[in-house]
Design brief:
The protein has 382 residues and is α/β, with parallel strands linked by helices. The protein has twelve helices and 13 strands. A nine-stranded parallel sheet has the order 5-4-3-2-1-13-12-9-6. A two-stranded antiparallel ribbon has the order 7-8. The N terminus and C terminus are likely disordered.
């Protein structure tokens, strides 16, 4: 009787979204993009991540070379069902099942696949794909359930800032009414299965389009900040304000307990003439301060007891990415594996002559000096 009561209670909790799979256990992760022809192999990427104690990554596909290389590493990976498959998957659940069986299941449980992102930044773009999002998400979830994987693999979808009608001040956070036919059912489903809300939040883009913003506020540097007129909460950085605007937008729809995770954030180290703030120093400052902030495992002003979590964009500068120059310069690391700038991480190779080089050069000059001194002594004595 006791066992049956427990099972019944567990079932009720699951239906209410209280029992949830967590695709990101840590607070700091990195997006591993590969739109490039000159970045390190997955095996060397694994070495790089381990050197820097990175335990959570997102990839934008289900690259079998990556999943194979990361087997046994313990690094938790979120994969992505590409946007171009969403319409087909939404219409035919067997396609979702086959995609998981072919692309993911052969690497389980050795590779720690913890999440599937169904598309990327779908809402706010093509209406046909937007209409396919919720059916595709449900198809993927049903396929995972059929394979007995819903207790280990989370289903989600990341959104751009285009889903918002307002984000400033944070208390005015609200989603676009025009997107509610898609977003409403999506949130209902995620609430039921316990999935977080993933948002791509870029203070860099906010500053790029509105350079009158105090850049210190965007970079986590000392500034007077803002006080939200409704909540009376003080914000000293834009990242926290963006996260809290998302929490408040969700709360207005009745989802007070849904967790918010930042699926992308970063700062470009180089840009076009019209891309304000895209410099190596600003990129270093943002990413250094972001890492420090997330490693404190603290919440935001509105959600102080909920740890802020984010994936940085991106691991490498990706030379084949289309768009403005900034798109190819978000990497914490250069294509050769050296650091793009110093935030305390170690590269695969040094960005400057290594200490070993200096030692060897030192030994060479010491030897040369010794020889010269010895020759001079011989000449004097003779």
């Amino acid at each position: 009787m006791a066992n049956s009561s427990f099972i019944f209670l567990w079932f009720i909790l699951l239906l209410n979204g209280i029992i949830a799979v967590h695709g990101m256990k840590g607070t700091y992760g990195i997006n591993y993009g590969k739109i490039s022809d000159n970045i390190p192999t997955p095996e060397n990427v694994l070495i790089l991540l381990k050197k820097n104690k990175i335990k959570n990554i997102r990839i934008y596909d289900a690259d079998q070379r990556v999943l194979k290389a990361f087997s046994g590493s313990g690094i938790e990976i979120s994969v992505c069902l590409p946007n171009e498959l969403l319409i087909d998957v939404s219409k035919n659940g067997s396609i979702a099942l086959e995609w998981i069986q072919v692309n993911l299941q052969p690497f389980l449980p050795g590779t720690s696949i913890r999440g599937i992102a169904v598309g990327n930044e779908i809402l706010g773009g093509d209406t046909a794909i937007a209409e396919a999002l919720v059916p595709a998400v449900k198809s993927v979830y049903r396929a995972l359930r059929k394979l007995g994987l819903t207790d280990t693999i989370e289903v989600s979808t990341p959104h751009s800032e285009a889903v918002f009608n307002s984000t400033y001040p944070p208390s005015d956070g609200a989603f676009k009414p025009s997107l509610m036919p898609y977003l409403g059912p999506l949130l209902q489903f995620f609430n039921r299965v316990g999935s977080p809300f993933y948002i791509n939040a870029y203070p860099f883009l906010a500053y790029k389009f509105e350079p009158t913003i105090d850049i210190n506020y965007a970079l986590f540097k000392k500034n007077k900040g803002i006080v939200d007129p409704k909540t009376k909460l003080h914000y000293d950085n834009m990242f926290d304000a963006m996260v809290d605007a998302t929490y408040i937008a969700l709360e207005k729809l009745g989802y007070k307990k849904m967790q918010v995770i930042v699926s992308e954030t970063g700062w470009a180290s180089k840009g076009d003439d019209n891309e304000a703030g895209a410099t190596p120093e600003n990129a270093r400052t943002y990413n250094f301060n972001l890492h420090k902030r997330l490693m404190k495992k603290k919440g935001t002003p509105y959600k102080p007891k909920t740890k802020a979590k984010a994936y940085v964009f991106a691991l490498f500068n990706e030379n084949l990415k289309p768009g403005p120059t900034s798109e190819r310069n978000f990497g914490l690391f250069k294509a050769d594996g050296s650091i793009a700038y110093d935030i305390g991480f170690k590269g695969l190779v040094s960005s400057s002559p290594s200490s070993k080089d200096f030692v060897l050069r030192g030994r060479f000059w010491i030897s040369q000096s010794f020889i010269i001194a010895a020759c001079a002594t011989i000449l004097v004595l003779s």
